[in-house]
TrEMBL record:
InterPro entries: AhpC/TSA, Thioredoxin-like_sf, Thioredoxin_domain. Residues 6-162 form the Thioredoxin domain. CDD domains: PRX_like2 (cd02970). Gene3D superfamilies: Glutaredoxin (3.40.30.10). One of its GO terms (molecular function) is oxidoreductase activity. This is Peroxiredoxin. SUPFAM superfamilies: Thioredoxin-like (SSF52833).
Length: 177
């Protein structure tokens, strides 16, 4: 498998996906008065750890919004899988579906095949999280090859509050070449 590295500071690609509320989203484009966006890629309906993580995000959503960061979550699930997942999710932020293999590769995500038809019926992305700044650049990213490694949300929130404070003049980290 060839994995393209998605680098901090890169422009986030303009990927459009349908949402479970019959709309569409452009992943890297903030909405609702926010000037930054957090994009959370989750494995899909079949993953109980993803469900828990997305519900944790909902609990902190207002604190992210106070920092000027809106949230969207996306997966490779089909429309019916994504809509079915909503019964377990308490998410009021947009949930997109239909992430293609090409889009997963564009984002530098790890991709897995299902272990069985009971898990799911398609390749899916392992977790990824991107925070896109007001210039469309990836300010912070975390890409995992399994469901057990994800940023702790309260630590992420605290770090983003530090980054967003203009007095700190905090640059995008990890850009040494």
């Amino acid at each position: 498998m060839t994995l393209s590295k998605f680098a901090a500071g890169d422009q986030f690609p303009k990927i459009q996906l349908p949402t479970v509320n019959d709309g569409t989203i452009t992943l890297g484009t903030p909405q609702n008065g926010a000037d930054w966006r957090m994009v959370v890629v989750y494995r899909g309906k079949h993953c109980p750890l993803c469900t828990r993580y997305l519900n944790e995000i909902e609990k902190l959503k207002e604190q992210f919004r106070q920092l000027g960061i809106d949230i969207v979550a996306v997966s490779a699930d089909s429309e019916s899988q994504a809509r079915g997942h909503m019964a377990e999710l308490k998410a009021s932020y947009p949930i997109g579906y239909g992430l293609s293999i090409e889009q997963m590769q564009q984002l530098g995500l790890y991709i897995s095949n299902p272990r069985s038809p009971q898990e799911t019926d398609h390749p899916f992305a392992e977790p990824g999280l991107y925070v896109i700044n007001d210039k469309g650049q990836v300010q912070v990213l975390d890409i995992s090859n399994g469901p057990f490694v994800r940023p702790e949300l309260e630590v992420l929130l605290s770090g983003l509050a530090f980054i967003r404070n203009p007095e700190n003049n905090y640059p995008i980290r990890g850009t040494y070449e």
